[in-house]
Write a structure and sequence with these properties.
The chain contains 13 helices and nine strands. The chain is an alpha/beta fold. The longest helix has 26 residues, at 7-32. It folds into two domains: 7-310, Thiamin diphosphate (ThDP)-binding fold, Pyr/PP domains (Rossmann fold, 3-Layer(aba) Sandwich); 317-360, no CATH class. Strand 4 (178-179) and strand 5 (182-183) form a beta hairpin. The protein has helices spanning 7-32, 47-54, 70-76, 80-88, 121-135, 153-164, 184-187, 212-228, 256-263, 267-277, 283-306, 349-363, 373-376, and strands at 62-64, 141-146, 169-175, 178-179, 182-183, 204-208, 233-238, 331-332, 339-340.
């Protein structure tokens, strides 16, 4: 067991974990209130892995995660107000309200984002490491991902390139024992995930992800290896999430007794207890850390509520990174004047008029009952499914026999 650091460091570690825990609890509450939209993946229980990792990183290091990353951004220094505003889809969010929970991003603090695609961050981490190497910088990229991502093709490809090019990347598997609802022993032939990159020449180690000091110690060594020895490393951190995979998870795949057993290993409660018993922190400091976390999170929710929603006319902004000169990334042919799709705000007048006319038409309320396709035919085929009304006979011969329909709904 790693020795306790000084009182100031212990307090900072405890305060960060308490803040992340309280933030996640509030995020879940706001999701239930329908204030936070989209998907929501909470990291309650994984605070030690997050804080232990970020606490030994340098300011110039990069961090990249997947979609359970509210706490990662906060631990790197992102204002909780901006993280909560992003969950609310508001303009003051980290991505201007356009990313939501799964796409927190803060380049200023070198948190290079969460990504909704499992394993999608792995090759991006390799790219960040390559850029640092190319520029001659000492920055290390820390790439955090779940156990399920270790089974993707991106994992093997990234490990191969990272080892081949000796990239300064520390890969950290947040093994919470479940890939969505599938236990690790059912989705991975090799359950010791620290060994999964050995075939590519990347050594791996295991740490207790519920012990913030064990994570600090392991990650510090991994960073040293990547920075000083200029070779990638892999760490598997055993951790656990107390909530479901997402807010919509019914959690039918694990027993309540298992969750309660892991709650006994709570990273915050156990660290606080250890600090108090060792006399490094007092009960007053522990309570103070929790009270401060409550104050920050309540203010973050109020900030997010007060932040405005993005104007609709900004919907097409920042969809493409364009340079001049450049080719067309997309072609918009919805009008007689095709134009560059990435420059939606600068579309020709004719295209804008047509788009606005279409939107206005769609917004009109329809009077009367809508046609029933089973009787009147599909809007596009122009055929009736029933005999014409004799009172509307125009004198021309009419076929008044109903036609049977085949399985596809067309007339036989």
């Amino acid at each position: 067991m790693a020795d306790l650091p000084d009182a100031a460091t212990c307090y900072e570690l405890l305060a960060r974990m308490a803040l992340i825990r309280r933030f996640e609890e509030e995020a879940g509450r706001q999701y239930q209130r329908a204030k936070a939209g989209g998907f929501l993946h909470l990291a309650i229980g994984e605070e030690a892995t997050i804080v232990g990792t970020t606490s030994v990183m340098r300011d110039e290091d990069f961090l990249i995660g997947t979609y359970r990353t509210h706490g990662h951004a906060i631990a790197r220094g992102t204002d909780p107000n901006r993280v909560m505003a992003e969950l609310f889809g508001r303009v003051d969010g980290t991505s201007g309200g356009r990313g939501g929970s799964m796409h927190i991003f803060d380049a200023e603090h070198r948190f290079m984002g969460g990504y909704g695609i499992v394993g999608g961050n792995l090759p991006i981490a390799a790219g960040l490491g390559l850029a640092s190497q190319y520029k001659g910088e000492e920055a290390v990229t820390v790439c955090m991902f779940g156990d399920g991502a270790s089974n993707t093709g991106n994992f093997g490809e990234t490990m191969n390139l990272a080892a081949l090019w000796t990239l300064p990347v520390l890969f950290l598997v947040e093994n919470n024992l479940y890939g969505m609802g599938t236990a690790v022993e059912r989705h991975s032939a090799q359950t010791d995930l620290s060994k999964k990159a050995e075939g590519y020449g990347i050594s791996g180690t295991r740490v207790d992800g519920m012990d913030v000091l064990a994570v600090r110690e392991g990650v510090a060594e991994g960073l040293r290896q990547a920075r000083e020895e200029e070779r990638p490393a892999l760490i598997e951190a055993f951790t656990y999430r107390y909530r479901g995979h997402s807010a919509a998870d019914p959690e039918v795949y694990r027993e309540k007794a298992e969750v309660e057993e892991w709650r006994e290993k709570d990273p915050i409660e156990n660290f606080a207890k250890r600090c108090v018993e060792a006399g490094v922190l007092g009960e007053r400091e522990v309570a103070q850390a929790r009270e401060k976390a409550e104050e920050i999170v309540v203010a973050a929710a109020e900030f997010a509520e007060a932040s405005p929603e993005p104007p609709l006319d900004t919907m097409y902004e920042n969809l493409y990174a364009t340079t001049d000169p450049s080719g067309w990334y997309a072609v918009d042919e919805r009008s007689p004047e095709p134009h560059r799709g990435e420059n939606e705000a600068e579309m020709p007048a004719a295209a804008r008029e047509l788009a606005e006319a279409g939107a206005a038409y769609a917004a009109q309320s329809e009077e009367g009952d809508r046609p029933n396709p089973a009787i009147h035919g599909d809007a596009m085929d122009g055929h009736s499914r029933q005999a014409p009304d004799p009172e509307e006979d125009d004198g021309e011969p009419q076929d008044t026999v109903e036609r049977p329909l085949n399985a596809e709904g067309a007339e036989d």
